[in-house]
Amino acid sequence: MKRLEFDEKNNLADVLKAIQNEPETEIEIYIFPGSEILKDSANKSVIELLAKQLDKKIVLKGEEGPKQVADETTSKKEGKEEDEHGFVEGKDVAEERVGESKFSLPKFPKLKFLKGPRWLFFLAGFIGLVIIAVILTFWLVPTATVTLTAEQKFKESELALIASAEAEEVDVDKGILPLKTLDTTIEDVLETKATGTKTVGTNAKGRVKIVNRDTKNKTFFAGTTIKTISNPILTFTLDETATISASPAGCIADCKETAVNVTAKEIGEKGNLAAGTKFQVGSVTDTTKVVAESLTNFTGGSSKKITVVSANDQKKAKEELLEKMEKKAKEELEKSNPGIVIPEGGLEPQILNEAYSKKTGEEALDFRLSLEVKFTAKIFSEEDLINLMIGSISETLPSGFEIDKEASVVESEILEKGDTDLKILGKIKASLVPIINTDEVVKNISGKDFGSTDKYLKSMNSITSFEIKLSPSVFRIFGTMPFARSRIKVELVQKE
After folding, report:
1. Yes or no: is domain 197-305 CATH 2.30.29?
2. Membrane spanning segments where (predicted)?
3. How confident is the model over 272-316, as pLDDT tens digits?
4. pLDDT tens digits, 390-420
5. Where are the domains of the chain?
């Protein structure tokens, strides 16, 4: 047992601080005569209260002040003395003692009151109350929040796992998770812009004469093409069949001919040719034998570009809406089944209904797509996954660190699909935090001055910085941490 001694120079605060700083749990406190510490019974109560809070056993020894006990009367009253039998000289031996009873009350010591003005006693009492109030204020009022900041560390790992529909429970050694199937049906609509373009218009029309200088009859059926001889090469088709008689040999003028209507094969203004334009007819390449010539100016050819719904527009709209619906289906399944994991690629869509407001190639500035899709999900327990992943790296953690399960992130993706199971790749980004006994920290800083507290906290491994918030802030001027351990809170955060 450790012995601590205090004399008249010491006060109550010295005793309390010594108890606080003494590592021993059993302490003998000796107060020298002349000290004012134990003359006030409230001081003794405060000392015992502090010892109880610190889980320490103390023994108080010393002078507790003069005991105001009256001296017992050792001599008889002046007068005649009784003999050993109770007789009094000069009185009748049979005379009964007046006022004597068979039983007598216990004797109490007479109190000796201190002499002096009464106001001194009131002043002493008031000072004692003030001291008690100050001590209780320091004990009960101040609170401290100590925030310890540790450098953020992570450990990443990947592990191949099997999610099996035949498994009923987790097999840690084999890396097997129970697999379940859920489904949900989603309906949604997407409106989007059309980006396709198309040229539309009318075909130029006109009338040509076909001249036959050959000595053989010529017949050209409806649909036969004629092409301009000069650039640009434009193609027209005969609207009806044309038959031309043979011409005499060596005919140059007044050769056999016939007139026929033609239509440009392509739309656009470029088909509006001038009268007198020469054409090659059909497969006859020798224009000295057969040639066509426009009789009038061709007219009616026109063109313009319009916006239409393209096949690519519909494809993109479908992909975008499916992605949106898949996300919605996943959220609904996770909300109605908390604690599940749907691995990447674990949702299979089945389109039940697909409808577009505009067909491919139809003129439109925008269009709408409506889909009804049934999503089937392959799922397993998030708790099972994170426990398997943490277990796979727990033996390789750096010394003095542990995994913060809540701050760790796990992911999974499907590697291979089977009939009743999935081969998946589990991934973990484990958040590592220092192993710190917060109760031990509180024990080592309670009641200590700021200098000692600062030195202790800086000596802690893995802690990069710390912050102390004292409330009410006015108690900072005393430079001391709260004495009551219950008034100190220690938090651990990670630096991002």
Report:
1. no
2. 119-141
3. 999 999 999 999 999 889 999 999 999 999 999 999 999 999 999
4. 888 888 888 888 888 888 899 999 888 888 8
5. 1-67+112-140, 181-195+308-376, 197-305
